[in-house]
Structures are given as C-alpha cells and as structure tokens.
Amino acid sequence: MTTVAAYAAPAAKAPLERTTIERRAVREHDVLIDIHFAGICHSDIHQVREGWGEAIFPMVPGHEIAGVVSEVGPGVTKFAVGDRVGVGCMVDSCRECENCRAGREQYCTGGNVMTYNGVGKDGEVTYGGYSEKVVVDENFVVRIPDALSLDVAAPLLCAGITVYSPLRHWNAGPGKKVAVLGMGGLGHMAVKIAHAMGAEVTVLSQSLRKKDDGLRLGADHYYATSDPKTFEELRGSFDLIVSTVSAPLDFGAFLSLLRTDGALVNVGAPEEPISLNLFSLIGGRKTLAGSSIGGIRETQEMLDFCAEHNLGAEIELIAASEINEAYERVLASDVRYRFVIDASTI
Predict the structure, then answer these.
(1) Which domain does 242 fall in, by range?
(2) Quick one: pLDDT at residue 31?
(3) What is the CATH classification number for the domain harbouring 118?
(4) 3-class DSSP state for residue 13?
C-alpha cells in the first residue's frame, strides 16, 4: 500500500478538502501512474452532491486522468515506465460478457467498476484522479500520443470520448448536418470532433454569448435556443443532434429540428426525469437515444484521432486549492471550457 495526498468530499454536498488515501500495491498486471493533470467534469459535481443517487464517502472524484507510468507489475506488456498515459471513467469490467468481448466495456452487463465512487472486484472502494497517484490494471489504461500535451489531453478521457462515441456511431461526417446542444466542457469538444470528421456543424446554445468561440472551434453556424425563431428556421434540418445538456429540455421542440430518420442523442444526464409526447418521435421515424463514454479501444482511437487533428481541450489550469471555487463556476457556466487540476499542487 502507498499513502498519497488527495482531495476528497467527506460527505454529500460537503466541500472537498485535502486528505490522504491508500493506493494498493502494484499487482501483476497493474501500472502505477504519477498523475500530472486531472480534469473536473460536471459528473464529479453530480456525484459529490448525490444528484444521481446515493454515493460512497469519503469520495475522491476525477475520471479525466493524465500522467506518466512510474512502476509496472511483472505481467504488464502494454506499458513501460515513462509512458504517457490516461485513465477515464472506468478501471475494470467483467471482461466476459458480450459487450466486454466486443470492446464495449462501458456497457458491461455485469457492471463495470467506475474510477471513483465504485467498488472493485477486491471489495475496495475506488478513488479517482484528484490525487497524486493511481494504480490501474493495464487493460484500462490508454496511451496519450506525444502530439497531445498532458494538460489538454486529460479532459479527453471523459469529455472527448463521451462525444466521440456517438458521433462515430451515428456516422457524423461529410454530407451530414450535426447540431451540438450546449457549448460547455463536452459541447466544445463535440464541435471540434464533428468538424474534424467533416460534418456541417451547428451549435445550439441558450444565448449567443459564446458564438465567437463556437465558430473559432469549428462550428459553421450558431443559434440561440432562447430565440423562438431558431426552432422555426431550423425545423427538419439535422441528421444528428448531440445533447450535452445536464438539465431537463423540451424534447419535443428539439426533436422537431431533426430530419426524417434523424437522431437526438443524449450524453448529458439530468438529475430529473423527463416527459415526452411520443408523437414527436413517430412523426418522422426519429430516434431519441443515449450514449455513455466509450470502450477502451474506442477511447484509444479517439485519442489518436485528436492527436492527428490537433484537438486538445480548451482548458483553465487551476491549483487543487481552487477545486471548490471551480465547482461553483462550473454550475454558473463560468469556464471556457474545462477546469484541469495541476496535480503537483495536491
């Protein structure tokens, strides 16, 4: 066991505070990672505040981890000391079900082990990336290409793969009109990735406040959803809408923006249930869907794609002592576009 410094929430809704945690000794197929950077995801706030249900405390959040391998177990074949690596939202799965065998560990039917607020196969609670080090099985670690600096790569481990997976699955590319709903941590990466895939990209945001940023990052068009004319003008326009919004929406209104056979895919996860008139789906053979992160192979594919196209996240680097302030700023949409913790300050 190794004692490391970390930032943890001692109880639900409590401010995070500096503490120490124990990391397990390196097992045969484990890698020990010195964490350099950890992104702050809105999911961290949902879980710290039990917005998605009962959680495990004390909680060390963080599932956007970028660092360097400092030790490997004797059976490790994929990584060596000194490798630049990342860890995303999960650190294990059953590895035997149909989804795991197909590289879709995020949909493990036995339930995957989340990077934090989870329980491993050994019965131990998992602690995330707001810490100095982490120990992870090599099969749930990905390589960060040299073309990506570690600080801008960290948010790709959640924000990047969360939008890349549905864009790939629903075939975003040349000839497709894609709308990104919400211009935040996930949304700004969706704009970058959809543009790099060759799609015609429209941002749908509450206001035009971030329009210049959206166009700079690759959007072709930018509309305010607070303007009723937007829904009149764009009716029947899109093949795919990716919603990154974690608040309840008028799904009927947004479904009206789809072409026949279009899909509205949710990657944002509101805490409240939604209501839906099914006629908004039936008329136009439309799909209302959801998508969760990506498997390990797809996450590596995403990182390689982002490196090829020079797609790092837009970040604001902070010290660990600023985490609680950063949480409040995320809730106020006051970040462009992802806070990243400098782990050397933990």
Answers:
(1) 160-290
(2) 98
(3) 3.90.180.10
(4) coil
Low-confidence ranges of the chain (pLDDT < 70): none
Instruction: Please say whether the beta carbons of 88 and 115 come within 8 A.
Output: yes
> What's residue 274's pLDDT?
85
pLDDT of residue 162: 98
Q: How much is the pLDDT for 180?
A: 98
The pLDDT score that the predictor gives to residue 246 is: 85
**Number of domains forming the structure of the chain:** 2
278 and 298 together in one domain: no
Neighbours of 168 (CB within 10 A): 18
Interval 284-295: pLDDT, tens: 999 999 999 999
Mark whether 56 and 145 lie in a shared domain. yes
**Distance from first CA to last CA of the chain, Å, rounded?**
19
222, 181 in Cβ contact below 8 A?
no
- Are 10 and 101 contained in the same domain? yes
C-alpha to C-alpha distance for 300 and 281, rounded to whole angstroms: 34
- What is d(CA 85, CA 102) in angstroms, rounded to the nearest whole number? 23
Between β-strands 177-181 and 200-205, what pairing exists: parallel, antiparallel or unpaired? parallel
